[in-house]
Each structure stands twice: as structure tokens, then as C-alpha cells.
Amino acid sequence: MSLDQTEATVPYKRLTSLFLCVILLALALTWTFLGMRAVMDVGGSCADGGPYVSAQPCPGGSWMLALSIPLLVIVAMIGSGVAIGLSAPGLLIPMWGLLFGSLGWNFLEYGAFSGDLVWGWIICGVVFELMALPTVFLMVPSRIGKKQTPPPAVAAVSTGGAWWWPAYVGLAVVGGALAIWSFGAWR
Q: What are residue 38's phi and psi, to 5 degrees?
């Protein structure tokens, strides 16, 4: 096998790794979103175990927050590293925007639309949405109309990058569905 033939092969292992990272990212984002809502349903703070007895035990599923946040960061970094080699969009910027956008939404919904106004949650919601906003500008292609040439190893599976986002969305739906199912099952 010559070097030219090697460069033209489809990088299935890297594609599979990237797609798995997208699924895990969506799973962790959904767990974070649902875990935060579970804690906010009981007033926004809770505690279990330890030497002190809490007046508010943590609801089922809130333990997933301790797993989902580190998983988000690790998977986004690994997935972004793999994506660079495939000339695919990275996962760190979308993760940042989706994380802070969804958590900001939770703060705003519970602070403004669930009975009395809770100004602390409304302020947190506005701050989180402001933290998510720059990702919109970072994700908009700055080279609209300019053709990007993918590396030869990706040329067989790439159509100029247009197919990555629908693929990411489809995989995210799978990850989100797994998260909703597992959150309900382990709650």
C-alpha cells in the first residue's frame, strides 16, 4: 500500500471517536440540565450524608451533576482534538454555549416564570445567557463563500464541511434521548 492510498482512506476510527464524543456530550449536557432542574425543584440547594443533617435532602438524579460536568469538559476536549484532525467543527465552543444557555434558561424559568420573582435566579440567568452569547458569533462561519479544502484522508467523506452540523445534531438527539431515559431510570 502506497502513501497515496493511505491518505485517501476513510478515517473510520477517528470518525467513530468523534461521533461517540458528540453522543456523550449531549448525554452529559442533558444530565446537567435535568439535574439542575431537580435541585431547583426543591429550592436550589440540598445535601445528603455527612456529619450534618440537612433540612433538604437531594432529589434523585441530582448525583448525576457530579458525573456530568467533568464528563462534559473531558469529552469536549477529546472530541475537539479528534475533530481538528478531520477538519470538523470542534466541540468546546458549542458545549460552552449549550451549557450556559441551557442553565441560564433554567435560572430564568424558575426565577421569573414559576410564581414569585426570584431576583437572584433572574440575575444568574441573565449572566449565564451573556456567557453563552459569544458562542453564537464564534460558531457563525467567518469564511462564508470561501471553499475550504479538507485533508486528503477526509476528502472521501467530506462535502466541504456542510454535513458535519446535521450529523452532530442527529447524534446529539441520540445522546439526549439516552440521557432522558437514564435520568428517569436512575432517579
A: -65, -40
